[in-house]
Task: inverse folding
């Protein structure tokens, strides 16, 4: 189990709004965080606010959505459950097709 995200995992993630307006075909996913059928696809990060932005599917693909994800809250889950954190380089559209749909 993880305790915190590593500098290596976070280093290439662009700042919030850096990919705003790109669309799913051009928006890049940098981290995939998964716990059973819960998946967070991280696309942006603000270290000052400890806030991610990305696509979250919490077990129901029809209710999955883009939004802000608290890094601190996600790290709390990492410490308690066997969560997989994987550095990826894939578009949001490809990631959703591969892991969500």
Result:
């Amino acid at each position: 189990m993880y305790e915190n995200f590593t500098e290596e995992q976070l280093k290439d993630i662009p700042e919030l709004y850096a990919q705003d307006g790109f669309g799913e075909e051009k928006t890049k996913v940098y981290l995939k965080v998964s716990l059973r059928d819960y998946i967070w696809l991280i696309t942006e990060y603000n270290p000052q606010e400890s806030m991610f932005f990305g696509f979250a599917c919490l077990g129901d693909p029809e209710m999955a959505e883009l939004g802000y994800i608290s890094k601190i809250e996600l790290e709390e889950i990492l410490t308690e459950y066997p969560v997989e954190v994987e550095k990826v380089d894939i578009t949001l559209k490809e990631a959703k097709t591969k892991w969500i749909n």
About this structure: The chain is about 25% helix and 40% strand. The longest helix spans residues 71-80.
